[in-house]
Amino acid sequence: MHSTISHMMEVVAKGDDSKIAALLAEDVQFMPPTYWKTWTGRAPVAAVLGHVGQVFSDFSYRRVMGDGNDWAVEFQCKIGEFDAVGVDLITLNDDGLIQLFEVTMRPYKSVGALREAMNARVMTDARFLKFREALS
């Protein structure tokens, strides 16, 4: 397994965006499961993923599939009272940093709970006033 993927598996669930940022390319793109927009840039994506680590509970990885620069990492967690299963689809750049990070999740109610929880957190995080330009 690529060292960036194993390191990501250690730090994302902890919600420490400073450790997450070190794994991301400067122009990383993050596609969340909660809406059809993309976050672009190391600082905004690290902040979003840091909040996700705080929203998820009972988080664990189940399977890792991939080779070279393309990886799929399956996880399970709880969001409030709801169980969820998801997959992180990750593409690394030539420097071994995360260039593209797309998340798919199910079931629908869990994704809705994630969206509500993330919106509540983002609304109270002053950094996101600046990060609005990173969302397209």
From TrEMBL:
Q: What is the top-level taxon of the source organism?
A: Bacteria
The segment(s) forming the SnoaL-like domain are 7-98
Q: Which InterPro entries does the UniProt entry name for this protein?
A: NTF2-like_dom_sf, SnoaL-like
> What is the name of the protein in this document?
Nuclear transport factor 2 family protein
